[in-house]
């Protein structure tokens, strides 16, 4: 058994942000658990052709670690992974890291957290995963874990596991009978040759709009199954010149660019959240982008969404429409429904041949794979507590789970700006409370009030009322459980209010009449 002050689970953006926030508060007693053999989170796992960020590079980074050497306005995935690895080395976080060490379970024992860890065999993401059952493998990320390796005891637990980690595999009759390779886009099989192959891509979300043009450019013949078209706006990506990179080596110039990009992002909230004028302008721009790049009226019609702008994630691409219109991509405006006698059968009844199937079908976003592993003071797991959808206080604290902080969890994603900004706010919030040695838990009243607040703020937005199915809303309750329905500035202010309530309660001592939160001294 190992005793430590804080256990952080995950070594992607959120976990690294949590570690840096603790360091900033003078706290150095923490352990970072990472189930894979390297840091990087989603940017370690996603290596498909064309993978890149859709948030500008100079905004998609940790505030204390600006990086002037980004090659593009929107960074390729490998550069983002290298960026995170560089921060870990520069900050000396290696001594806190336990790689290839998955959390098997965590339980609150009345005084502290007991976290069982395993030792992973083959602790990388598998390169070739067929048949379909092996896309995930026996554990959540395709990494088989042995029996328990150690138990950690910690006062505080920070879940920084990410929300896009568990590939969503569609339940399609006959899929496992397909004769060629099948894999999820986030588990790319690099042994598969692309040139000259007929590759079926299932889905037209954020990964697919990057993947499809890259496959077509590499000489693949692509058949694309589109259940629902997306609103797509110009990305306007380009390479940074050496002169631009040189200018951005000036910290003040880099800070000014980051501030401009932040302001641009905040301004996008209006069009994404349903402001009538802003949404109409954005939709007009998206339609013009489609019209300029796709000349065939029938193909244009098939690529035009019928739901409100912003209802689904708005995508950025300069090359998806040209690829679809090039003749190298066969668009099937229908979902893949089954595999029969080796052919891919669409919901419209059409049959299609392919050598390879790529499932660009998203992730289990509303039902997190780590939720069944964490048991709180009432004996329930997070999965059981969230049976009707994720709930929280300040998108960070959860009733019944003392001294637990969830980063990037309930209502902590963004559809208009960099989610790294939200994660950094949560990390700073958690670190300040951990520094104080506080015993913190959210009351059921506080959680219910915050849940009502989210429902009220989101009721009239396209995410809930825009006429589409999206990964932001939990189908069990119809509630918005992934997105924060406000600006980054509004989230910062809201989390500060939670912090102030905790500070007031601490100054006054335990206050049984306080309806919101409990904040006591050291844990009993």
From TrEMBL:
SUPFAM superfamilies: FAD/NAD(P)-binding domain. InterPro entries: FAD-bind_Monooxygenase_sf (IPR051209), FAD/NAD-bd_sf (IPR036188), FAD/NAD-binding_dom (IPR023753). Residues 6-249 form the FAD/NAD(P)-binding domain. GO terms for molecular function: oxidoreductase activity. Pfam families: Pyr_redox_2 (PF07992). This is NAD(P)/FAD-dependent oxidoreductase. It comes from Microbacterium betulae.
């Amino acid at each position: 058994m190992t005793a430590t002050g804080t256990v952080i689970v995950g070594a992607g953006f959120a976990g690294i942000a949590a570690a840096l926030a603790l360091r900033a508060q003078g706290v150095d007693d923490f352990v970072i658990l990472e189930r894979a053999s390297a840091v990087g989170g989603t940017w370690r796992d996603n290596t498909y052709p064309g993978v890149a960020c859709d948030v500008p590079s100079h905004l998609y980074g940790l505030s204390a670690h600006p990086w002037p050497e980004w090659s593009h306005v929107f960074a390729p995935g490998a550069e983002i992974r290298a960026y995170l690895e560089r921060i870990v080395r520069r900050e000396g976080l290696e001594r806190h890291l336990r790689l290839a060490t998955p959390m098997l379970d965590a339980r609150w024992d009345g005084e502290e957290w007991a976290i069982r860890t395993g030792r992973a065999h083959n602790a990388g993401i598998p390169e070739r995963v067929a048949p379909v059952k092996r896309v995930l493998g026996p554990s959540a990320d395709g990494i088989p874990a042995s029996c328990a390796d150690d138990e950690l005891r910690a006062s505080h637990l920070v879940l920084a596991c990410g929300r896009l980690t568990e590939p969503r595999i569609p339940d399609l009759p006959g899929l496992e009978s397909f004769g060629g390779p099948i894999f999820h886009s986030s588990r790319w099989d690099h042994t598969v040759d692309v040139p000259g192959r007929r590759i079926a891509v299932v889905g037209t979300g954020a990964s697919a709009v990057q993947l499809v043009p890259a496959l077509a450019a590499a000489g693949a013949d692509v058949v694309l199954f589109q259940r629902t078209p997306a609103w797509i706006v110009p990305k306007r990506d380009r390479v940074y010149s050496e002169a631009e990179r040189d200018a951005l080596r000036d910290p003040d110039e880099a800070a000014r660019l980051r501030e401009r990009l932040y302001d641009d992002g905040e301004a996008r909230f209006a069009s994404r959240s349903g402001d009538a004028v802003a949404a109409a302008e954005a939709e007009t721009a998206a339609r013009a982008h489609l019209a300029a790049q796709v000349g065939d009226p029938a193909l244009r019609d098939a690529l035009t969404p019928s739901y409100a702008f912003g209802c689904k994630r708005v995508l950025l691409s300069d090359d998806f429409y040209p690829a679809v219109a090039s003749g190298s991509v066969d668009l099937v405006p229908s979902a893949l429904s089954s595999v029969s006698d080796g052919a891919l059968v669409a919901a419209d009844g059409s049959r299609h041949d392919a050598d390879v199937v790529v499932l660009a079908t998203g992730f289990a976003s509303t039902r997190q794979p780590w939720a069944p592993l964490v048991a709180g003071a009432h004996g329930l797991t997070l999965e059981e507590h969230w049976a009707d959808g994720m709930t929280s206080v300040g998108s960070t604290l959860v009733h019944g789970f003392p001294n637990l902080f969830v980063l990037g969890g309930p209502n902590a994603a963004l559809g208009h700006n960099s989610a790294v900004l939200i994660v950094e706010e949560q990390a700073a919030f958690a670190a300040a409370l951990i520094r104080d040695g506080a015993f913190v838990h959210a009351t059921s009243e506080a959680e219910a009030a915050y849940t009502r607040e989210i429902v009220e703020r989101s009721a009239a937005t396209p995410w809930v009322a825009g006429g589409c199915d999206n990964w932001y809303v939990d189908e069990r309750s119809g509630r918005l459980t992934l997105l924060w329905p406000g600006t980054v500035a509004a989230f910062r202010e809201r989390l500060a209010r939670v912090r102030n309530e905790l500070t007031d309660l601490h100054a006054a001592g335990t206050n049984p009449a306080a309806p919101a939160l409990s904040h006591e001294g050291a844990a009993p």
